[in-house]
Amino acid sequence: MKIVVLGGGISTEREVSLVTSASVCRALRSLGHKAIFVDMYLGLEDYDGPLAEAFDAPDGFLSEASVEKVAPDLEAVKAARKMKGPSHLGRNVLEICQLADCVFLGLHGADGEDGRIQAALELLGVPYTGSDPLSSAMAMDKAVAKRIMESAGVRTPAWRELTYTAADIPRLAEELPVPCAVKVVNGGSSIGVVLPDTREELAEALRELEPFHSRVVVEEKIAGRELTQPILDDHYMSAIEIVPPEGMTFDYVAKYQSGDEGAREICPAPITAAEQKLLGETALKLHRALGLAVYSRADFILDTEGRSWCLEVNTLPGMTPNSLIPKAAAVEGLSYAELCEKIVELSLEARKKSVSR
């Protein structure tokens, strides 16, 4: 198949997306597919040949990518782009996607997980991987996702949605509960998440997030074990326990750095069969309630009383060979390349079903 692996973009999760996309593209090419990498924001700005021949590029337009310890400098990315202007779609992005049999969405965060690119591809009649525009948008918006959790009977920490200005911060810092988690509604990769324990830290968190994200969710901080539950093809796989380095939270650095700075990810998670069933069935319930398709990953806290608390759900989770869903797939005997191909095949089936309705 001719496959465009669409990644990069201009969200705060750009670097994570670049690593996911490069990994997926190499895996699909190893199975004989004509897969090429296209940066959604930059497009094919260095390719001047016929678009139809782009799928024959010997290197698949691949380059080395890695995740640094800090979020990417998006202003530098914008300044370096040859095509100027406000568009978040680079040169010939939609045109090359229209020539593909499928677009594998290696995007994370804004423009990728929020349903925008899915909607554009649907209008063009181009098949893509994962969930549809509406389901993606609902899952990406943490406040909307929380409401769906509650309506579906999925336990989630007590929460409150806030839209505020700098003038509101002193009052909010006094009336909101601490400790808590303050999260921007459309953030990901632990960017835009602050975990204050004191009122002074809460005020600082609100000041930190206000200039960029005045709409946030403030949620009760639940003590317990951090676990994540992958879903693939409408069934749950092995849960994974995430153990951050001593004294650290599961932040951007802990998520994507190896060695002493990175978190330990234990798969299968050392939990009982009953706990695995609880997490799996709860994640599957939420997956279905949101109308998600093909794959997703829900994050939980498992408290000391054995109760699961759902924090959020990811519709385009990381897909590097060392990411969480590939680790769970490996437990089931599915190699990384086979997983990437399976996501493509399942997505093509999902798009056919949606067209036939």
Which shape, going by the Cα principal axes?
Answer: globular
Q: Would you tell me the structural class of the helices and strands?
A: alpha+beta
N- to C-terminal distance: 25 Å
The biggest beta sheet is recorded as: 6 strands, antiparallel
CATH class annotation of the largest domain? Alpha Beta
Question: Strand percentage, roughly?
Answer: 15-25%
Approximate helicity band? 25-40%
The low-pLDDT segments are 250-260
Tell me the domain tally. Answer: 3
Overall radius of gyration: 20 Å
Might you state the CATH topology name of the largest domain?
Rossmann fold
Tally of contiguous helical segments: 12
- CATH architecture call of the largest domain: 3-Layer(aba) Sandwich
* Count of beta strands: 13
